[in-house]
Write a structure and sequence with these properties.
mainly alpha, 10 helices
Length: about 230
Amino acid sequence: MGYTIMRNFAKTIKMAAVGLLIATGATVAASADILIIDQERVQREAAAYKDFDLQTAQIREAIIALRQRTSPDGYWDQTAIQFQQRMKTDFDDLEKRKSIIGDSAYQTERTEKEQAFQTESQRMQLQLQQETTNLRQYELFLDNLRREALTQVERARGPLLRTILKERGAKIIMRKSLAMETAAGLDVTTEFIEQLDDALPTVTLSLRQQTEGSEEDGEAPASDGSGGQ
């Protein structure tokens, strides 16, 4: 009899303890001090970032093309190799014909070829230099546009994060990439993206608007020289 009473009492205590743990866990989940946002997902899905990519697509494509042309083993390196091969072939052919055309004609033709190849070489070097300069200007310009857009995102993001913290009773919102492990219910990425889309559906790139004329002319945009420093 006494054993049965003790066993029932122990069971009651155990159930109460389990209930307390469940209730405590629910309270912690509801008022977690730390929330998580997946910044990489925000950059992929938020309307402001998509709008920035759309507005700068032409500039980014120009940068990719110029990088391919001016990079090692790119267009200009291959063109230089072909130029050297063509020049060697021409002079080798001239040497073979020397005994046929005579010294005077040989010297005249050789001088003409040297001048023509030198002019072509200088032209290619100038084009490479111009494209390298254009690439640098485009990269600096894109960096300036990105800073302009991020400033607008930052201004919109601050109030939204503070609202989420207040509503969730949390103290910190950290990037998901910095967390080694997270519990369910801490990720507020979807909520944040929805609010950011409402607050900032597009970004205004005033620097791009100022240089639309240059872009239409096919010229590289002028840079302020800051280079993001």
